[in-house]
Amino acid sequence: PGFVGCFVDSGSPPALSGASGTSTRLTVPLCIRFCRARGYEFAGVEAGYACFCGHAGDVRRGRRAGAAECDQVCFGKASQLCGGDGRLAVYHVSVGACQANSTAPAGVIYSPDFPDDYGPDADCSWRVGAGAGAPLELTFRLFDVPDPNDRLQLRDARTRRLLAQFDGRRPPPRPGPLRLPTDALLLTFRSNTLLHAQGFALTYR
User: Fold this and answer.
1) Which of 78, 172, 173, 176 is 20 to 30 A from residue 39's alpha carbon, by CA?
2) What mean pLDDT do residues 139-156 have?
3) Binning pLDDT at 50, 70 and 90, where does residue 168 land?
4) Distinct helix (H) and strand (E) counts, the chain
């Protein structure tokens, strides 16, 4: 999720010109969180252990490589790929963010720290919709929330009226879509300290 592409990194100048770091426990979400916390738009992982941050200008200037060239496993999680030798796998930092405000006509929302498990005491909110009069339509691609006390609520962003609520006992309808009588939606997700899992991924339009 959020994958922008595989880029050549010659090192001088680096493909992403912002903050950087290395870790023997590197994962893709760890690098994304590192860059997001420092105000960057993009995060890149390289050679299994290196993390780089940058902005849109870096990506526009970057030289793309084939996605298959970003094939090295992350040192911190063998099921994830973290770039390659001289190859930077770049991601947008919005993936796994705990809050957002988007007027785009379509998009994707992921639970916090996705694709890793969401953590304890999450208190997240996302406002979506252009407010153009067209009702919103949501489709859940994943809903892995086992705890009945971990709740995703959907509200009309203007009136705050509760439109739907999903949790470990009441999952969303599948395969969907779920049509909502609003053109501006507020989603909130709260978790407690028990039974964490991968969370959710949904598209909206």
Assistant:
1) 78
2) 95
3) very high
4) 2, 17
